Amino acid sequence: MSKRVYLYDSTLRDGAQTQGVDFSAADKIAIARELDGLGIDYIEGGWPGANDTDDAFFARAPHMVRGRLAAFGMTRRAGRSADNDPALQTLLSSGAPVVTLVGKTWDFQCRVALGVELDENLRMIADSIALTAQRVDQAVFDAEHFFDGYKSNPEYAVSCLRTALDAGARWVVLCDTNGGTLPSEVEAIVTAITRQLPGDRLGIHCHNDTENAVANSLAAVQAGVRQIQGTLNGLGERCGNANLISIIPSLMLKMGFETGLSSHDLTRLKHVSRLLDERLNRAPDRRAPYVGDSAFAHKGGLHVSAVERDPRCYEHVTPESVGNTRQILVSNQAGRSNVMARFREIGLDMEASDPRIGSLLETIKRLEAQGFAFDGAEASFELLARRELAEVPEYFRLTSFRVIDERRWNARGELITLSEATVKMDIQGERHMVVAEGNGPVNALDAALRKVLVPVYPVLADLRLVDYKVRILTPDAATAALTRVMIESADAEGTRWTTVGVSSNVIDASFNALQDALTYRLFKSGQVPHPG
Predict the structure, then answer these.
(1) 190 touches 223 (CB < 8 A)
(2) pLDDT tens column, 41-83
(3) Is the CB of residue 36 less than 8 Å from the CB of residue 289?
(4) Contact at 8 Å (CB) between 430 and 407?
(5) CA-angle at 336, arms to 331 and 337, nearest 5°
(6) H-type alpha helices, 238-354
């Protein structure tokens, strides 16, 4: 059987059902691009027609280079034809080349949840998949509650799979929807299924309610399925979904399977994991397998001496293979390989022995200790690195700024809030002072900066801020807490970049991130400082 396993990411749909997670359309677009760049085969964007965010995403869905965009929905309703089901027609009109339909395979669910007879459920599957296979490149059938259904009525559960395949489904996916199946059960049931149906048409979709989603997914692959569904960092309803960040390296480095990722793509795994956490304003899990800060950390004593002789003594894979870094807490060499890998990504050609690398490493460590996070702010990292090499000109210098907020009742008795920013700037010896108003203090500051800079550097005219996030780093300090601001910017061509600022003053942190955003745009566009 083929050693190729196809990866199907449902972060943007299943992951959005995580308590406390609320993706914006911009979030979903950015994450989809990262997944495509990583080499994920299928990227499920959401459920068209279900909510405004998913509709906005599919209306502006990014072009996929390596993967396929999938839209998610359900089989036709009972009593309707597939051609006359509005929800199904919305899916087929979404523009996604792959449509995944969920349907019942547990006789109990058919009777209780849907209230339909078992034969009608089979017709719902057949009609919906047949129409979908005619209209899009690939139809996928998610066999909901399959493992519970198989335990209850194996003949009927398998007949649902067979019906979907006969109707034209590229994949039928065995779903452990309640998350209660154990690895030994998954292996036994999948082995039985692959004796009846081709494994290269089968997928697995596991939930983590017994902390076994990753183990169940790998057991299913070992038993013959060739598609795995999961989410980044294990996001998902209740206890989450199978964590692709753990599954991918286990498949490639442990089990010898091929995926859509190359070995180079695998080195970006930690970066992608961290990028998602930053999008969600969540602290990364230090103890996360493969990508956590503690995954390759060694502290003193026997472990350190053994690892310095040969890292294999206490490391099951090399940290560099997944984009992580070995941390020997008594060594000043920690992080060098990771920085060198980032240099290669941004086109900086430096020898590892260059003494400036050591200086940059110390700067990075100092800034990260203050709360900076460069994994989610590539533009700020590149500017930091290039400034160490004296490659970034000083396009402008802010000598001071002042922001005033006024909250009052107007003449009509309406409560209004006004923000006004004053900035004083030097551009190559020429002094500027402007005042601008905005919708909040950060918007006012941004407007004031642009009021000076756009006439001098017209290339900034198309720069727009597409996302702004604030995270409290020291919650115990209450209103005096240290804050981190992440700003995502974009230009007219759709290029996006993220910058970071940290301060105990949220406006100051915002300015630092804004300054990097503007400077990065000027530097990458090849601008030279205004002569003054």
Answers:
(1) yes
(2) 999 999 999 999 999 999 999 999 999 999 999 999 998 999 9
(3) no
(4) no
(5) 125
(6) 244-249, 263-266, 269-279, 301-309, 336-346
Residue 443, CA distances (Å) to 45, 404, 418, 511, 525 in order: 30, 12, 11, 10, 24
Residue 216 CA to residue 190 CA, distance in Å, equals 10
Ranges of H-type helices in 280-409 = 301-309, 336-346, 355-369, 378-388
CB-CB contact of 489 with 522 (8 Å): no
Give the Cα separation of 501 and 516 in Å (integer): 9
Spatial CB neighbours of 297, under 8 Å, sequence gap ≥ 6: 326, 327, 329
Q: How far is CA 269 from CA 194, 218, 248, 349, in A?
A: 31, 18, 9, 22
Residue 225 near residue 203 (C-beta atoms within 8 A): yes
Contact indicator for 530, 395 with CB cutoff of 8 Å: yes
CA-derived radius of gyration, the chain? 26
Q: How many beta carbons lie within 10 A of that of residue 305, not counting itself? A: 11
The percent of residues above 90 in pLDDT, for the chain, comes to 72
**What DSSP character marks residue 449?**
H
pLDDT tens-digit profile of 233-260?
999 999 999 999 999 999 999 999 999 9
Q: Residue 99 — φ and ψ, nearest 5°?
A: -125, 125
